Amino acid sequence: MSSRLEAEQLYKVFGRRPGEAVERLRRGADREDLRADGTTAAVIDASFTVEPGRIFVVMGLSGSGKSTLLRMLNGLLEPTAGHVRFDGQDLTALSDRELREVRSRKISMVFQHFALFPHRSVLENAAYGLEVQGVPRREREQRATEALELAGLAGWEKSWPDELSGGMQQRVGLARALATDADLLLMDESFSALDPLIRRDMQDQLIELQKKLRKTIVFITHDLNEAMRLGDSIAVMRDGRIVQIGTAEDILVRPANDYVASFTQDVDRSRVLTAAAVMDARTRGDEAECGCETASPGTAFGELCAISARVEHPVAVVDADGGLVGVVPRQRLVGFLGDEQGEPGPCDTPRGKTVGAVKAGA
C-alpha cells in the first residue's frame, strides 16, 4: 500500500545559523552541543510514512519535539531541512498560497485547547473551515450538521460554546475538522486537557469514527496508554529524535532501548498484548504437546489468561487452518504482566505469586 504521508529526514533548528547546525547534527553533534552555542534542535532527522486510513501516533515527554514535528507536517513551521510529502506532493516546495490551499481543503487540525469562537454557535464553529473555503452557506451548514451528528452532538447546533462541557467543546473541534472532509487529520494533544473519564470517552469516539470514515490521522500525545489504544503505529520521540517506530506490541515486547522500555513499565499490558505477541513459536511437529483448548494469534491477553486458568497444559495457538503456530505456558503470561505483587488472578501461579518479568522478546 502506498503511503499517504511521508516525512523524510526532517530537521527543525531554532537560533543562529540553522543550516550550519543541521550539518553539525549530521556529523554527530547532539542537542547539548548546539545549545551551548545558543541554538535549539527541536526535531532531528525524523523520517516515517503513514498509510491511508491509519492512525499514526507520535508520543514523547514535553520537549521531545513531537508538536514541532506535527506543525511541519502542514507547513505551520518550515523545516530547516528535509521534506514532507502528502499524496506524493512535496509540501515543502509549495508557495505560501499553494500551501494555504492544501491546508484549507486537504489537511485539518484539532488542537489541545478547543479554539472555538465564543461569539459563534456550535453549528457556526463546526462550519468555520467550510466558510474559509468559500462553501455556500446552505451547503456548509448541512455538512457541519452531519459532522456534529457524527461527533455525537446532534441537537446542540444552536448552543453556544460556553454552554458545553470540555468534552463537548472538543467534539465541536473534531466536527469542524470532519466537516471539511479533509484527507488528513492532525491532532495535537487533542484530549490532554480533558478529565480522565471524558478523555476515554473521546478516545472511544475517535475509534468509532475511524471505523466509519477511515481517515489518515497523525495523533500527538504524551500518554503511552492513549498511544497504545489509538495507534496503528507508534513513534516514540526523545530529545528531538524518533527512537522507535512500531505497533503497540512492538513497543511493549521489543523496546528499542532502555528509554522506550521505561515508558512501558506502567502500561496495562492485558489491554494491548495478544497471543501472537506472547507465544513461544512452534511447528506442526510439536502439536502433540498441546491440549485441545486453543487460542488464535489475535486472542486478547485477558481471554488468554482465562483459557490458561481452565487448563493444566500450555495453551495452544492455532492459525485459521487449525495448524499449530505457538504455545503459551502459564508462567510466560505471568512474566508479561510484570513482577508487581498484587491480588491473585487467573494468570498467577497456584500459590498466587507472580514470577519475575520476562525480558522483552524473550
TrEMBL record:
A GO MF label: ATP binding
One biological process term in Gene Ontology: response to osmotic stress
One Pfam family linked to the record: ABC_tran
Domain spans labelled ABC transporter: 5-264
GO cellular component: membrane
InterPro entries: AAA+_ATPase, ABC_osmolyte_uptake_ATP-bind, ABC_transporter-like_ATP-bd, ABC_transporter-like_CS, Gly-betaine_transp_ATP-bd, P-loop_NTPase
Domain of life: Bacteria
Keyword terms: ATP-binding, CBS domain, Nucleotide-binding, Transport
Disordered: region residues: 341-362
Entry keyword annotation includes Hydrolase: no
Family listed: Belongs to the ABC transporter superfamily.
Protein name: Glycine/betaine ABC transporter ATP-binding protein
Organism listed in the record: Streptomyces fructofermentans
